[in-house]
Amino acid sequence: DAKTTQPNSMESNEEEPVHLPCNHSTISGTDYIHWYRQLPSQGPEYVIHGLTSNVNNRMASLAIAEDRKSSTLILHRATLRDAAVYYCILRGAGGGADGLTFGKGTHLIIQP
Amino acid sequence: DTAVSQTPKYLVTQMGNDKSIKCEQNLGHDTMYWYKQDSKKFLKIMFSYNNKELIINETVPNRFSPKSPDKAHLNLHINSLELGDSAVYFCASRQTRQSSGANVLTFGAGSRLTVL
What we know:
Chain A is an all-beta fold.
């Protein structure tokens, strides 16, 4: 899986939008962009994924740059429960049993 | 119903012992995984397994072995436990499809192993 770069940590205020950036300049044409998060003392959970177009779901939005070399996870209105480590991961389209490779992620701190 | 369940949630044991952590998924997925998260919070994949192949991370000592009695279970056996094995171990599963880039993983809540 190609490498991603994320800030080590970010801080935001409750009820404000949060934009979490991810750089993936070596992304290949068939790599999907996945975001997972890990809440304290829990397993990672899926947030959102996309290939080329921007994506929205009930948890977040994913904005993908036109050249696909970067993406941004958007939490529209952060709550204290959104405090977690957020991982941006590239996943190739090949078949097989191989799993996701997690980086260091971004530790998101939400201030009340 | 918990989608991916692991037991035990906590395990404290002595060095040199042999222990197992069990994982069950009720999602009908065909591929299961074990991940290790150490004290620095790095998540590293240990094994990927489906009925066709076992992929082992080359850094995993051969004291660790996955055992899959059926598609819904992937247990982790650890022989001769060492202090450095202390970590949180996560089980995960997914359904492989032809276009696997879109496949998402579902994780269990983790099993915290402490070796004394």
